[in-house]
Amino acid sequence: MKGLQIILDELDGRPAAALMWDGQLDDFLLSAPDDAPPTPGSIFRAIADRPMKGQGGMMMKLPGGQMALFRGAKGIRPGDAFLVQVTSYAEAGKAVPVTDRVIFKGRYVIVTPGAKGINVSRQIRDEEEKVRLLDILHRFEMPEDVGLIVRSNADGADEEEIANEASHFLGLAQAVLSDDSQDAELLVDGGDAHEIAQRDWVHSETAHGFEAHGVLDALALLDSDAVSVGGTTLYIEPTRALVAVDVNTGGDFSPASGLKANLACARALPRQLRCRGLGGQITLDLAPMAKKDRKQFEQALRSAFKADAVETALVGWTPLGHFELQRKRERLPLPKGIAL
């Protein structure tokens, strides 16, 4: 099928969602198992436990005996209760990373406690549409010290849908912010794969059934570490410490083969990382190329990740000539053999 299509189903008893673009898997979401760390976006009331001396952080108690790490804990004392939001999945054996910059994210709007005002996404460039959206939201009586961001998804969306969602999330924010309880508690769940897909993947038809829409075949390809991109082969291998990506030129021995293979890697990498659910430190072992070609490679990599929804920092070159990235752990890695 041509165009974008959201396919909803379950894998291993867990909600899952696939974004197909012209019949190719472009993104994939799989809900975490019950014993996984808290989902990014979840909001907790946490209890300060003990300071991390020399690091400026504070260990926080979450419900169920879980621990969280909050950085920048100046002025917080053990026993204090305050709101935190999970920023990414915790690595095995480590505390859950959290922030006190809590937001309430919907399909069309984001409610921002502590940041007053109504702002429209820069991706909405039509001035008449900006005026329409601002007119919808200026009708609401905003709680004190709370703002709104209009997401690009709202461009052209139904007025009633935008208004209803804004009302819902403003009410939710007000209820959470006014709760003065002192116990560790989950207040807002980060959502499962179906909820996140419907919230973030817009302008797409929705269907059900992975097998009928070719999703299982696409996922089976992700079970291999090897990825063929034209004549180039990428080997994407997650380890405990990092994700290693090896670029192989195959049978091309021409002088420009290294640059061609590395540019192919740059174009293919964001989609591969999205669909495999990989994040953290990523090290690229690139094919040999002249140092003068590095700038062209960096430009291609930057352009490829610009359209990627997951926050990724292009860190730079190592002394050994590897290129490093740091990617937010918004998803858990896709388990091997889950679609077989």
Explain this structure.
- The chain has 340 residues and is of the alpha+beta class.
- The chain has six helices and 20 strands.
- It has helices at residues 127-137, 159-178, 193-200, 215-222, 257-276, 294-306; strands spanning 4-11, 14-21, 24-30, 43-52, 57-61, 67-71, 81-86, 96-99, 104-105, 109-113, 117-120, 146-150, 185-188, 205-208, 226-229, 232-238, 243-248, 280-285, 312-317, 323-327.
- The protein has a six-stranded mixed beta sheet with strand order 15-16-17-18-20-19, covered by helices on one side. The chain has a five-stranded mixed β-barrel with strand order 4-5-6-8-7.
- The longest helix is centred in the middle third of the chain and has 20 residues, at 159-178.
- The model has no long low-confidence stretch (mean pLDDT 92).
N-to-C SSE series? EEEEEEEEEEEHEHEHEHEEEHEHEE
- C-alpha end-to-end distance: 23 Å
Strand share of the residues?
A: 25-35%
Rg, nearest Å: 22 Å
Q: What's the mean pLDDT score?
A: 92
Helix/strand-derived category reads alpha+beta
Number of H- or I-type helical stretches: 6
**Which overall shape is indicated by the principal axes computed on the Cα atoms?**
globular
Biggest pleated-sheet summary: 6 strands, mixed
Number of strands: 20
Tell me roughly what share of residues is in helical segments: 10-25%
